[in-house]
Amino acid sequence: MLKSPLQEFVNDCIVRNQDADGLTLEELYGLYLSWCALRGATPAPTRTFRAGLRKANIQPEHRGGLCKGLAMTGPAACDYIVHRELPLAPLPHEVQKGGADDDRTAPVGREPAAEKGPVSAPAA
């Protein structure tokens, strides 16, 4: 019997651990989106996702609560945690301004016209 993608997700990314605080539905869906992205798959809508979790007997104790005793695992968990915790860093000011006079922002394949010296990040 073939497993559904949601069953595969549960098997690949979620472990039962009584010592774990648990996961919210939002965290579970974020984990699912990371899992889909790593597989190149199109994610199911949230309603379908939640129905699949209920079939796997995964649901919060109350609305907005935690699904107790669950923890994330695997590559999708790492991907989700990294992207949730580390937003994209802004570019240094001099790279952001760019422009025709700034050769450091040359399009790929075009070499800067002349070396202007070392480029340093602004002091924090």
Broad CATH class of the domain at 5-85: Mainly Alpha
Instruction: Please report which band the strand proportion falls in: under 5%, 5-15%, 15-25%, 25-35%, 35-45% or over 45%.
Output: under 5%
- Give the biggest beta sheet: 2 strands, antiparallel
Give the name of the CATH architecture of the domain at 5-85: Orthogonal Bundle
- State the share of residues found in helices, binned by percent: 40-55%
What does the radius of gyration come to?
Answer: 22 Å
Task: Tell me the CATH topology of the domain at 5-85.
Answer: Arc Repressor Mutant, subunit A
Q: Which regions have little confidence, pLDDT < 50, spanning 5+ residues?
A: 99-112
Number of strands: 2
Give, in spatial order, the strands making up the sheet with the most strands: 1-2
- What count of helical segments does DSSP give? 5
Mean pLDDT: 78
Specify the structural class.
mainly alpha
Give an overview in words.
The protein has helices spanning 5-13, 25-39, 46-55, 75-85, 93-97, and strands at residues 14-16, 70-72. It has 5 helices and 2 strands; from the N terminus they run αβααβαα. 40% of the residues lie in helices and 5% in strands. It has a domain at 5-85: Arc Repressor Mutant, subunit A (Orthogonal Bundle), CATH 1.10.10. By secondary structure, the chain is mainly alpha-helical. The model is unreliable at 99-112 (pLDDT under 50).
